[in-house]
């Protein structure tokens, strides 16, 4: 056994790794700073039963040669920068019980060859770029106890065969693009303790059979398109501690029967179409929701009340119409002849996020979560308490210019909404700390795709990226009341999401121009003496 986990080992594993480890059964290099590719020669350690290389900086593909480790029971590669498909040689790991490939950049489909691993118990491949469907053959692995495919780009329906895994304890398919409805057979998972299907496109009703999941502790169906009522049968889930049905199209009353869920300590039913009273007994007592008031109006007074409501409604409608007209006149852009294909989103200020939540989200601003550094400070990858993956932009406050940069970016991002501008989710600000919480773009910056040997854009992707950037600039220059000049447009400030849609970011140097300033600013405001090749022509938009 060789255990060197949780150190600061750095550098690359030598290409001869494995030749001197022929009799080694356990190799643990978890949580270090090792980089480079995983050498194919590691397969020469043929007696390995445990291989832990997670939470490092390994890149490149998963070696095909790992299939030669026929005695391997535990494979941990989580939290690296591995890319490419899962090799088909994985099917030879017939003794494998735990497979951890999460939080990498693995792509392609989840291969059917995994279904041949008859002893597999844990399969964690979340936070990658897998597309396509969930293998329908997974029910062939009767030993499966934990499945995590969260945070990928899977876009099929959930295969019906998955509900035949009656010994499954945890199933997390959240934040994909899964569609279809939940069948009655979902209730077959009698021993499941965690069921998270949030952040998909599931529709239809919540099946009443879910009430039979009496060991379920966490149920999240949030951010889908579910409709209809909440089944009364959910009151039979006696172990339920966490229930999130928010952001759906659910309707009807909130079942009073949920008062029997004595262990429930979190419930979120927001952004639905519920009506009626909120239950007040059982676990609902701890939520301190005030009871609804039901004043009794005498029949003889009802006509007067309705008459008064009619008058007030007419007055309110008139005021709203006049106000709306005034706002439209005041906010009307100066140049009415300019096209505005802007895909605007509803206006709204970002929410405030506490410093402690950001510390937790970034694991104490761990270097392994560092996405990049600049003159303003650093950007970290983080996961908020609701599971949202974000980019946390922390400003270094040693110079006043960075504080002004934070204020400028807040001002710009709270006023502008466009599908090709980076969306701000929240902020955190006090005397000693300032940070913006932004949407996380999984494919990184355009600079990486233009100048890295490991990434490449084809012609159509390049044209699409240019059109996205041009669309953002057209909106900044002409689509808002006051023209906005970015002042620091370059590939490192253009981010690509999971669908390779480009988003302009970093508005710390941006300027709102009044009419008298339109030809005044000729001074270089950001990267001195530099404009990124290929972007100069975009300034004409």
TrEMBL record:
Protein localization: Membrane
Domain of life: Eukaryota
Stretches assigned to coiled coil: none
Domain Protein kinase: 365-541
PROSITE patterns: PROTEIN_KINASE_ATP, PROTEIN_KINASE_DOM, PROTEIN_KINASE_ST
Ranges annotated as spanning the membrane: 305-330
Record's bilayer topology term: Single-pass membrane protein
GO molecular-function term, one example from the UniProt record: ATP binding
Pfam families from the UniProt entry: LRR_14, LRR_8, Pkinase
Protein residues bound to ATP: 393
Record's GO cellular component terms: membrane
Example GO BP: defense response
Key words of the record: ATP-binding, Kinase, Leucine-rich repeat, Membrane, Nucleotide-binding, Repeat, Transferase, Transmembrane, Transmembrane helix
InterPro entries attached to this UniProt entry: Kinase-like_dom_sf, Leu-rich_rpt, Leu-rich_rpt_typical-subtyp, LRR_dom_sf, LRR_R13L4/SHOC2-like, Plant_receptor-like_S/T_kinase, Prot_kinase_dom, Protein_kinase_ATP_BS
Xref: SMART domains: LRR_TYP (SM00369), S_TKc (SM00220)
Keyword Transferase carried by entry: yes
PANTHER family linked: LRR RECEPTOR-LIKE SERINE_THREONINE-PROTEIN KINASE EFR, OS04G0122200 PROTEIN
Protein name, UniProt field: DH200=94 genomic scaffold, scaffold_9279
Organism: Coffea canephora
